[in-house]
Amino acid sequence: PIGPRGTVARRVYRTLNDEQSYLFVDDVRNNAEQLYHTSVAGTGAAAPDDLASVPFPAPNARVCAVFKDCVFLDGGREQSTTLFFSNPGRPDQYGGLDYITLDGRGGEVTGLYAYNNNLIVFRSAGIDVLTGTYPSFTVQTVTSQVACRAPNSIDSVPGIGVVFLAEDGVYVLRGGLDGGAQFQVVSLGVGIRKELQRMTLECASRAVGRYAPLERAYHLYLPVDGNDRPNLGCVFHLDKQAWSLRTGFPVGAIDRLHDGTLVFGHNTGAEAAGSNPPAGLFVLSAIRSMGGAIVGDNYEPGAAPVSVYESCWHDMGDAQVKKQVQYVTLWCQTRGDD
Fold first, then answer.
1. pLDDT per residue over 289-306, tens digit each?
2. For residue 145, what is the DSSP state?
3. Cβ-Cβ contacts under 8 Å for 128 (sequence gap 6 or more)
4. What's the CA gap between 152 and 122, in Å, rounded?
């Protein structure tokens, strides 16, 4: 147990007349004292059995998720079709029988994601769904046709579902099992089919993705054209239901801050040549390349451009019909710096 101020405590039990039964005596609220004195008779709760808590069972785990207050872990390469789960609210305590052996036909576990009232289990040859409460969990297969090889691309997108990258495209898992509902796996990468065909399959597991609530867009960065690290960005815009591309973004890892801002780690960082390699964290923002300066502890973007371009009037084919322009694409030729 955890003692005051986060220190580790030790729990003392003792036997009475029956040598097989241990009763609780006291908590030693430290992990340093070697001598403990007590005159209290053991009248507390009975000690847990030997299987109630075992040494950490998954030291080589690769993916994890929290579901129903339990920490779920895969068994690593040695136990790639086994899921271990902790006691509820106790992420460091695992029972000897608290594990699930999955159907071997689904392949090894490649990702875990808690979604609504389910734990999505992504595997190398399909997708399973885990439901229930501790200690009774059940698993059923959703599909054996689509698999996720990029666990860091998995994220929930409002109104869409759980988006992830497979070897043959981008898919979304939507639906559920409550109230007779069913899960559906639908392709989401129709607009970027040619780009996905360029993906470096051997390095697909390095692809990363996150939903940006400020932009209402899902960002996906993946390695293409033989590169071993992500070098192409694909962004799905919810409002337009369409994809756009990003180049020149060296995203190696990406995550979302509490305010919805996306931050990423450079995919070469300190490995890059030069005296000042681009190591550290970077922000994906709407600030354009007009420069800026560090003022105190903050970055202040430069002033907005002052050039103005005014086009001729466009009636969009019918001057009598009222229109609402949603976006404008401007192709321009420039010279000089930014």
1. 566 778 888 877 777 777
2. S
3. 102, 103, 106, 120, 121, 139, 140, 141, 142
4. 12
Query: For every residue of 256-310, which 3-state class applies, written as one string?
Result: ECCCCCEEEEECCHHHCCCCCCCCCEEEECCCCCCCEEEECCEEEECCCCCCCCC
Cis amide leading into 301 (omega within 30): no
User: Please, what's the b/e burial string for 114-146 (b: 16 or more CB within 10 A of its CB; e: otherwise)?
Assistant: bbeebbbbbbbbbbbbbbeebeebebeebbeeb
- Judged by DSSP in three states, 148 sits in coil
pTM equals: 0.75
Residue closest to 176 by CA, chosen among 228, 230, 130, 224: 130
- The span from the CA of 279 to the CA of 271, in Å, is 8
The closest of 271, 172, 262 to 221, measured between CA atoms, is: 262
CA-wise closest residue to 254 among 161, 153, 113, 164: 153
* C-alpha count within 13 angstroms, C-beta hemisphere, residue 216: 9
Nearest to 79 by CA among 120, 116, 109: 109
User: Is the separation of the CB atoms in 109 and 61 below 8 Å?
Assistant: no
> pLDDT tens across 55-110, in order?
899 999 999 999 999 999 999 999 999 999 999 998 988 999 999 999 989 999 99
Alpha-carbon distance of 46 to 49, in angstroms, equals 9
Sign of the alpha-carbon dihedral angle for 50, 56, 61, 64:
positive
